[in-house]
Specification:
single chain; alpha/beta; 4-stranded mixed sheet; 3-stranded mixed sheet; 52% helix; flat
Length: 211
């Protein structure tokens, strides 16, 4: 009897694990676009390094957006690093076709000409009960949050350039928070306006400080 109960409950535990992991990866997807400016780029003569770091960050955000839009929940499992025109994909996916599709999606992004696809294949079990379905639904919300937050971050890169590195963006159910520092009121107002202008944003919480 105990063995039967264990076998029956295994998909439920796997579903709960999927939701928890998806939430963590969604947060990682957002934080990935809030990297600190590299030390070399902050030097007075490092304008080229700063421009390169900004271009890499923009392309990284664009790849994240494309993966989330095309792969949905599977896109949360994909880590992205971009250097020049080369993107590196890492993480785990459950289907071989998803692994190949992720590469093609990355290649579809302007500025990405080469992909180092290090995604690994792992088996998965399909949960069947209502709690498992709820867990999948929560993961889908995480996809939406990660997608919205990354789109806002990309708009900040376009509007503020390297100063966008200093603003942390988080999104939850259409509510976006901006936290960090900018040099003046104009840039803070610009950041808020850009976030409010992103499709899907219901409210912007301003936590930006002038430094």
């Amino acid at each position: 009897m105990s063995r039967h109960t264990s076998d029956w409950s295994r998909p439920l535990h796997q579903a709960r694990g999927l939701a928890a992991r998806a939430a963590g990866l969604a947060l990682a997807a957002l934080l990935a676009c809030s990297l600190a400016v590299p030390a070399a780029a902050s030097d007075s003569d490092g304008s080229n390094d700063l421009a390169t770091a900004l271009a890499n960050a923009r392309n990284k955000a664009a790849v994240h957006i494309a993966l989330l839009e095309k792969l949905g929940i599977d896109g949360l499992r994909v880590g992205v690093e971009v250097t020049g025109d080369r993107a590196k994909l890492s993480g785990e996916v459950h289907k071989r076709e998803t692994r190949e599709l992720a590469k093609q999606v990355a290649l579809s992004v302007d500025g990405v000409n080469n992909v180092d696809n290090q995604l690994e294949l792992t088996p998965s079990a399909a949960p069947e009960d209502t709690t498992a379905a709820k867990a999948v639904g929560e993961a889908q919300h995480d996809v939406a949050d990660a997608l919205l937050g990354t789109k806002v971050k990309l708009k900040l890169f376009d509007a503020l350039g390297s100063d966008a590195f200093k603003i942390d963006v988080k999104a939850s159910d259409g509510i976006v928070s901006l936290r960090g520092t900018v040099p003046n009121d104009h840039e803070r107002d610009t950041a808020i306006a850009e976030a409010k202008g992103a499709k899907g944003v219901k409210k912007v919480v301003d936590l930006i400080e002038i430094a």
